[in-house]
Amino acid sequence: MAEQTEGTQTINASAEEIMEIITDFDSYPKGTDFKSAEVLKKDKQGRGSEVRYEMKAPVIGDVALTLSYRYKSGDGGVSWTSKDIDGGIKSIKGEYVLEELDEDETKVTYKTSVDLEVKVPGMLKKQGEKQIIKQALDGLKKRVEKG
Length: 147
What we know:
Blueprint: E1 5-11, H1 15-22, E2 34-42, E3 48-57, E4 61-71, E5 77-86, E6 89-102, E7 105-116, H2 122-146
Antiparallel strand pairs: 1-7, 2-3, 3-4, 4-5, 5-6, 6-7
């Protein structure tokens, strides 16, 4: 697995409110690069534990993948690993880590590592991962704070 890239942003909401948005997989196709998202399995708390996505990714084109999710205790975040991928990517690993600063403010750290099937120079790959992280954190902040 490749080296992890990470980014952090403070969001004006509780960790619980942020986790509600993160785990609302049915909403992922709205305003993102995801064409579809389908929850295949749920855990005992009713949260998605396996989700199938279809998306259009820069450089590699159409990708269909299934991610397996593991939840941290409380509202501490969630991690994921790829289970099944069709198209241009060998594996994906990532996580959201939520650290509540107070009841209305949470530090959110997004970490990811993407292993592509095609060789991409390390600097370009790192820039791509940073862009994914920035878009994810900005999108999350916008969805949470508008609510």
